[in-house]
Amino acid sequence: MTWIKSTVFILILAMLAIPTVQKVLKIIPTIGLEGYFVPSFRPEFTLVSFSTGAFQQQMTPHIERTTGFHNDFTRLFNQVDFTFFSIPHAARIIVGKNNYLQADSHIEAYLGTDFIGKKYIDDKVSRLKYLQDYFLEKKGVTLLVILAPGKGFYFPEHIPDRYLKLKKNITNNGYYVSQMKKAGINLIDFNQWLVNLKDTSRNILYPKTGIHWSCYGAWLCADSLTRYLEARLDRALPHLVLDSVVHEPVARRKDNDMDRVLNLMWTIPVPEMSYPVFHHEYRSSLPKPSALFISDSFYWYWHDNGIIKNTFSQEEMWYYDKEVYPLQLIRPTNTAQIGLDQAIGRQDVVILMQTNAGYGNIGYGFVDRAYEFYYPGKTPVKQIMKTFRSNAGMLDILKKKAIEQNLPLDAVVLTDAIYLYNNELKRISKNN
User: Most buried residue among 40, 62, 132, 363 by CB atoms closer than 10 A?
Assistant: First the structure.
């Protein structure tokens, strides 16, 4: 029995030592984890930090993150929870029926539990209408709203039953569509269009394990946008010519972004995916139109696959009306740091693109910001700004914020005034 005990003891020691050996020597290659993680750096040792316990508290997560095979053990743990309990270890991801991955925000948008209120949306549509008319009459610029598809609307049959009992009669997306149509806003509703094509399309338009439209769905919508703009602008645009469609049994990276951040041992099986192979043809000698996109992440497929570059004369996008691309790739640039009028004036078309109707905030702040700039009359926001400037204490706070954020004081005053105005609108909307 002694040799058995000794053998077991040695095996246990070996098992305990293997992670340390792997950490130091990295004998077996491991795949890194995907997603966002709070950095866990090795803390600096001092007698004070050790005596107070701060060193130990900071050292524990660092040791856990850097242990040998940490990533592999994490994937194994995640796989067990996912396979047997449908538990996803990723923020805001919901495992739907048949393992269709959903985002909680997309479910809320479909259910209408995040409805922001009629008065709030009526206000934004009114401002949109003013901007659309002003841009066209004064600057010759077409303003267009695009509603990208939301996964909750496309796959309601895969939403877990525990959520469906919360469904409301009205959604931000639905109310925006009805009010924008009444107001005559230039609108492309890709959300409803893809839903209409769902049962007849031979190709997957929304991936099982992705948060955005599929690569094929994105290509199809880009082709539709091109044809829409040709008619609206009354000018030729480069056409997307489909050469072939490649069918694959697995989802490529862009169609698999939700699965990847789950960090599982094995990818989730998906239906056969379709990938367009295409090129552009432009038969006009005229310059291509210029366009500014104010968009969320649904823009990136069009950008990464050359659709923006080959359709328009430049690539210009304001991500959530905050980060300015492509300048952001050179140095951090906020939209508040560039001239709004000059940026609008050099465009042929300004496109506001968002999924789930921007969760109630069409344009992600652009509509309010542009309206306050171009509308010549009095507004509640301008009155709030005047109050800010007349209050020395408040102005000092805003000056400090402007310095901390490296933004012009006027931009910070405007942003805070809009914030207060919209909060009051939301309060009134919810009480009506």
Answer: 363
| Exposure on the CB side of residue 347, measured as CA atoms within 13 A | 22
How many whole angstroms separate alpha carbon 275 and alpha carbon 248? 8
Region label for 321, one of left (φ > 0), alpha (ψ between -120 and 50) or beta (otherwise): left
The pTM of the full predicted model, rounded to 2 decimals, is 0.89
Q: C-alpha angle with apex 386: 382 to 392, nearest 5 degrees?
A: 150
Q: Give one DSSP letter per residue of 378-422, joined into a string.
A: --HHHHHHHHHHH-HHHHHHHHHHHHHHT--HHHHHHHHHHHHHH
Three-point CA angle 240, 246, 251, nearest 5°: 110
8 A C-beta contact, residue 356 and residue 172: yes
Dist. CA 228–CA 231, nearest whole Å: 5
Residue 308 and residue 353: Cα distance in Å, rounded?
14
**pLDDT score at 40:** 62
Residue type (1 letter), 273: M
DSSP assignments along 69-137, one per residue: THHHHHHHHHHHHHHHH----STTEEE-GGG-EEEHHHHHHHHTTT---HHHHHHHHHHHHHHHHHIII
**Separation CA 380–CA 360 (nearest Å):** 20
CA 4 to CA 2: how far, in whole Å? 5
Residue 291, φ and ψ in degrees, nearest 5: -145, 140
Residue 358 DSSP label? G
Contact partners, residue 402, CB within 8 Å, separation at least 6: 408, 409, 411, 412
How far apart are alpha carbons 299 and 269 in whole angstroms? 26
Spacing of C-alpha 371 from chain mean position = 24
Name which of 188, 174, 189, 223 is nearest 203 in CA terms: 223
- What is the residue type of 326? P
Is omega for the bond preceding 326 within 30 degrees of 0, making it cis? yes
Q: How far apart are CA 176 and CA 171, in angstroms?
A: 8
Render pLDDT for 59-92 as a digit per residue (tens, 0 to 9): 566 556 666 566 777 788 889 999 998 999 988 9
Q: Which residues contact 370 (CB under 8 A, 6 or more apart)?
A: 131, 340, 344
Helix (H, G, I), strand (E, B) or coil at 150: coil
> pLDDT digit string (tens) for 36-55?
656 666 667 677 666 777 66
Measured distance CA(307)–CA(315) in Å, rounded: 10
